[in-house]
Amino acid sequence: MRAYSKTLVLSTFFFILLLLYFFARRDALLKAEQNGGSLRDVRSAVTFHPPLLRDTQQETRRRQKLTKILSGSKKITRKHPKQFSMSISHKGPMHLALVACRNHLEEALTMMKSALLFSNRKIMFHIFTEESIKLMFETRLKQWLDPLSSKFQYIIREITFSIKDAEEWKKIFQPCAAQHLFLPVVLKDVDSLLYVDTDVLFLRPVEDIWSFLNMFNDTQLAGMTLEHEIPNRIFDHHSIKGIAGINSGVMLMNLTRIRSAVFKNSLIPNGVEWKDLLNHFYEKYKNYITWKDQDMLNIIFHDNPEYLYKLPCQWNYRPQHCMYGSNCKGAEEEGVSILHGNNGVYYDDKQPAFKAVYEAIHGYTIEENMFQSLLYPLQTKFLDTVNTLCGRIPQIFLKQIEKTLKKVYEQRVVIHLGHLQY
Ligand SMILES: *[C@@H]1O[C@H](CO)[C@@H](O)[C@H](O)[C@H]1NC(C)=O
Ligand SMILES: *[C@@H]1O[C@H](CO)[C@@H](O)[C@H](O)[C@H]1NC(C)=O
To answer: One of this protein's Pfam families, by short name (predicted)?
Structure first.
């Protein structure tokens, strides 16, 4: 009898606890909805139906699935909360360098916005630019600092070639294009750096490409993608000595290693350090005025292949990966991670799929609802591109954004619940 009443008391106790928990959670959800509004925002965003893509049934199913995931708090709370900690990572900042000249201010800011949209780790931007647009940069970035001060810092610098014939260099190479060759020398105190062209857009967190630094073996010091997935196929003016070559629009660099490495080359048998290498190159190639910075990198890594980490093509996805048919398997499988709209495709009508992504991110204002003001307009824009070779499979472009937004949403819910005391 005593054992029986003990059990009764215990189970009543647990029942009451369960009830309390249930009500507390319901309250919490309601409160979260009223408080920050983000939960409500996203819910109303989910019930907003833009014109459907592709097959209606399939799209409806997809949307139902998304709605289920977004409203199914059960699923979210079952997961380990740590996994979704929305707070900015306490690890040191990731360093991102860009070189923006003349009319590339707007494009550069759009690239930076894309980097900030999806990342959870602080970013330090090193902006190299001309005196004439410095002030405009400053004004625009200050507007972002208010909502995003925990997410980024920036330094604006002038174009700097730390080399003895700096003025000569500037005459021969386009100063803006050649700047990134000097980054290991100019940014003396930075250990690792991601350099990107301004016509690049991040479709997933910057920390994802940053983590490739840990995958470098003992000799690798820079990560880049190949210029062509299928060597020597269509345009080969970039390749040198018959190598397919690398594209320098996205360069992940361990600067510490670049500064201390010795580079073999045909000019000096024993090899030289990076900073001297640039001088030698200048002496040897100053008459080949059509050469570009990318050609120089191609020569360097052709002579020192063990220094190069080959990034998969979805980390520097360009029109040539789809305009003659798809030739980037990685993008088909997991979607584009970094989009690179080179040759001006964001501004003409040659590649509407690239333009659609640029315009969606460009038109998004920080702090707006990301589903309503970014994802859905983007999905709608893709309707106009399905007849082009690049827009044929919208998922190649949309997969990573959808994945990231889903994660951001889940993090918000957990944070809201986490703030409430039961
Ligand atoms: C870069 O390389 C140096 C020297 O090998 C190493 O100490 C450092 O941790 C590396 N940085 C990153 C981010 O991996
Ligand atoms: C690192 O990888 C590159 C490319 O695969 C290779 O050439 C090099 O020998 C590797 N280095 C080490 C130390 O294993």
So the answer is: Glyco_transf_8
- Give phi and psi for 50, each to the nearest 5: -75, 170
Calculate how far, in angstroms, residue 247's C-alpha sits from the geometric centre of ligand 2: 20
> pTM to 2 decimals?
0.78
- For residue 304 and ligand 2, the question of a CB distance below 6 A is answered with no
Spatial separation of the C-alpha atoms in residues 238 and 232, rounded to whole Å = 10
Least confident of 74-88, 119-133, 224-238, 377-391: 74-88
* The pairing of beta strand 89-100 with beta strand 121-129: parallel
Q: What is the pLDDT of residues 293-324, one digit of tens each?
A: 788 888 899 889 999 999 999 999 999 999 99
96, 194, 253, 254, best to mutate for ligand 1 pocket (most atoms within 8 Å of CB): 254
Strands 89-100 and 200-202: unpaired
The Cα 199–Cα 339 span in angstroms is 8
Of the pLDDT bands very low, low, confident and very high (cuts 50, 70, 90), residue 176 is: confident
Q: Find, among 257, 276, 294, 255, the residue nearest to 163 by Cα.
A: 276
| Closest residue to atom 3 of ligand 2, CA basis | 306
- CA nearest to 250, candidates 307, 199, 187, 304: 199
Best residue among 219, 221, 302 to mutate for probing ligand 2, ranked by most atoms within 8 Å of CB: 219
CA of residue 254 to ligand 1 center, whole Å? 6
Domains of the chain: 39-71+329-421 (no CATH), 94-311 (3.90.550.10)
- What integer pLDDT is reported at residue 18 of this predicted model? 61
* Nearest-angstrom CA–CA distance, 116 and 152: 8
DSSP calls for 124-142: EEEEEE-HHHHHHHHHHHH
